Amino acid sequence: MQVNGKSVVDIKSKFIGCMLGSAIGDAIGEIAFSYSRRSDLLAYVAETSKLRYTDDTAMAIGLAESITTIRGLDQEHLGATFSKNFQKEPWRGYASGPPTIFSMVKSLGITYVEAAHRLFGSRGSYGNGAAMRIAPLGLLYYDSPDLYEKASASAEVTHAHALGMDGASVQACAVAMAVKENPQNDFPLQTYIQQLWDFARTTQIREKLEIVKEYIQRKTDPSIVAARIGRSVAVHESMPFAIYCFLLHPKSFEECLFCAVLNRGDRDTLGAMACAISGAYLGAAAIPAECKAKLENRAYIEELAGALADLNERSYA
Questions:
Q1: How many domains does the structure of the chain reveal?
Q2: pLDDT per residue as tens digits for the range 232-261
Q3: CA–CA separation, 222 and 199 (whole Å)
Q4: Alpha-carbon span 143 to 316, nearest angstrom
Q5: 297, part of any domain
Q6: CA–CA separation, 37 vs 261, rounded Å?
Q7: Is this structure's pTM higher than 0.85?
Q8: How far is the C-alpha of 64 from the C-alpha of 180, rounded, in Å?
């Protein structure tokens, strides 16, 4: 956007781009489980009338609903929102963790955080489920010094392992930094990676970000990088690869998307994470119009993104 001949970052477009981008990455990533060749995937997307998202986006919507409703983060409100949305749409493809937590809260009368800490032998989950949904919080707190604390607290509602919380926080930071960058300028690749490394607090994720740094300098083929980093449901074996896909293609939403979903692994979540960052950086206009038109609940997702932008402006003006 130009104002008086100068380039100005359109924050609302970036918020909408992030939310829509994440949902589209999720939906197309889910399709990629069945259509794993680029040509076949493109053909299916062109023919289908609707892009249907999974639990990744359903939980991102729940996070956005909670933090815009109470104008901030409250773990119990967030957990209750997740539970309510799950009861409405249990078919979205939820992993076993969240429904187990919802059931424990109801049957035992404990908090969502306490239930999350009891999972997996009281170690908590280090899956990528908190990172896949974190985009709305990364948007709201994109310029806040409390970003890590807010992100880790939102993760703890379902993913109480230190890795689960750290991975979600680093993904939130990736979104936040993308919002602040102007896509009309050269992308500050090395600075961006270093800031993510500095933001991380676990050795495992820092080690994976070191691999990202090493391979992005060489522009190594994504299939090699995915095999080295990992692409599983564990957050330190998926979130860093999503970041790599964005860094390899910072100026192209589509290429970032295909990088994330066509290298096997947890395709829908890789797409959601990578495309949340891409959308936050490039803005809504960079997302293919056909994909936006076919995304289910697009208007509501845009409404939530707008509410996040308004709340951010009022909170940090």
A1: 1
A2: 999 999 999 999 999 999 999 999 999 999
A3: 24
A4: 8
A5: yes
A6: 10
A7: yes
A8: 20
